[in-house]
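User: Structure please.
Assistant: Input sequence and predicted structure:
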Amino acid sequence: MRHNFLLFLYLAFFVTQAQEVTILDQTSHEPIVGVVVYNSSKTKNLISNFEGKVSLDVFNNNEKIIFQHISHVKLTYLKSEIPHIVYLIMKAQDLEEIVISASKFEQSKREVPKKIISIKAEDILFANPQTSADLLQSSGQVFIQKSQLGGGSPLIRGFSTNRLLLSVDGVRMNNAIFRGGNVQNIISIDPFSIQNTEIILGADSVIYGSDAIGGVINFYTKTPKLSLTDTLLFKGNTIIRYSSASNEKTGHIDFNLGYKKWAFLTSVSFTDFDDLQMGKFGPDDYLRPEYVVTTNGQDNIVQNKNPRIQHFTGYKQINFLQKVQYKVDETLHFDLGLLYSTTSDYPRYDRLIRYEGNELKYAEWFYGPQRWFLGNFQITKLSSNSNLYDKIKATVAYQNFQESRIDRNLNSEIRRTRKENVDAISANFDFEKNLSETTKLFYGVEYIYNSVGSQGKQENIPNNITQPIASRYPNGSTWQSLAAYINYKFKPNKKFTLQTGVRYNAIFIKADLSENNTFFNLPFNDADIKTGALTGTAGFSWIPNKTIQWKLNASTAFRAPNIDDIGKIFDSEPGSVVVPNANLKPEYAYNGELGLTLNFNKTVVIDLATYYTYLDNALVRRDFSINGQTEIIYDGELSNVQAIQNASKAWIYGFEAGIKISFSEHFKFKSQYSIVGGMEEDNGIEVPVRHVAPSFGNAHLIWGKNKLKCDAFINYNGELSFNSLAVSEVRKAYLYAKDKNGNPYAPSWYTINFRSQYEINKNTSLIATLENITNQRYRPYSSGISAPGTNLILALKYSF
């Protein structure tokens, strides 16, 4: 008995002396590898392993222990007070940040001559965006236009829609029917499934090809986690969220199964939005005084009991992601990604508030379910003895896009439906080769094939008789791209990096217009376009000392015509119809930008950039004629004929400024401001450019300590006067407020907001946001829907 008691005392003493801690990132709860743990005199030091664990047995109980990592804030504890789990906070400014989008391989951000914004997992979690469009807007450097609640079209440096390139896990999302008008495809990407987002501001056609004129938006979804031990790694997250302005109800779950070689990640999200309520204080022009209700086949205009409620804007959405990774060894892995998204029908609000005379024009105008599927298989090899490459990334993908438009005029018995389907196949092979200690080569080839299906019909509702009408696009048309690029990096020392590259793209378009020629007497029956584009870039990053970094870049970019340009038939604006035009060629952009970063010991960081872009042979919508006719009947309305043409040139310029100040480890300030200007040529006259947003910015005061993080911030927008509006926007006067002369304009606005995150325990956190505290009524430039009024957003996250 005595020996057992002594053994018990010995074991108890041993356990109390042995102390192992796990070091995790405070936001993601992921283990941090390579944390240096040392005492004040630096006579003892240890490093955390792949599981973030380290034993503290070598330290005495009365010693101060420091936890330090290159990308996290240093933390000090008395050993006797150290918990079993130590959380480190990510640094606000990490000059050694790694980006992928610049070359498709990991590269230090400081080496890249272009400006790249990174939105990390912890930023996404704290921002708690309702859609991926809202996620981009939270960066403060991307302007978002919305035609309806189920929407979000980014504007970057005066360009939008098919002059921006969207990418998901390295797969091009832009397809053959991406239009010059506002696009809503970005809402198909689930913000809960995003690990990080990288936004290239400015042209990058050398790496990404057609459409990358104004910028490139790269979404990288979460990657399955492998187990670092012989036991199964099972972990996951559940999130529920509510927002008051749209009565939003959202649920999300994701879970990870990790083995040593195999890992699986599943993610599912569901969102239900009701009609959105706008703010109380602002222009009455935005109010919704009446709307159409159809009862027993009869359309009735009813008065809105609450004109701030925007009937009809609500919709539902489901997102699904499944990823699989097989890791052969440290240098070779295979990845499979399956993504699917679908919405319910969602109304196009900007059409539902359009009047014809004194009455609302439409009884119905909505998009059918927007469906998107992506299947992506990728092979990555990070080490090779080949003379041709050191690293290779091969990506093969298939995408399917489905969308439709349904409309019916007030008191009409005819409902029109137009459906589109795009099948997209792509293959990318990207290589990296070290030529010497100072030079590196990136190169690759790309092939893209798009097939477009399009149908139109109209239904007589009382007798249920349907008949064909002109489809939106030529059915069965195809768009192909074949390209090769090479990019060269020269880094003679730690201070200077030069990068330059070229790309050649061949484009092949085929479209049969004969079906639609039964409705319109077009001067041609088909379009067969073969064209090409050569683009290049050259720039450098120079860091003469610890305080200053200069970036200078010059590039050319292009956008090849697509099926939307050459073959579309649609009503672009009140009283106008766009018809096909087969005589098109690529538009070219010539871009230059200069950036300066001032880093004062990481306490104050100032980031400045200015740029200029000249767009030549711009593909724009202009008046047109068919067999000498400038007006035709379209959907029962006499309409002015227009077509996409290489008929313009444009000049875009701007300035961006940002600042970050760390008053202390816990209290910080950051702000961002962007101003954009530009003119384009219209029949020899210089007029404002449609997608040049007003000046905009934000300012944040952030405090965080232990389990609590708070952010008080303001978002603001400058005014666009009547004389600064593009001609196409003036024609949509019903979307804008009226100035003192009765002319449309976009007023300035601001919102005051507060966001907080509290970690209830290591598994549970609560995020609470109060947006637009002063209940401002405003509508972002070019948008068809007013923004939310005072909006309370509550989200509860549980990790297991």
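Helices lie at 2-17, 121-127, 132-137, 205-208, 349-352, 563-567, 727-730.
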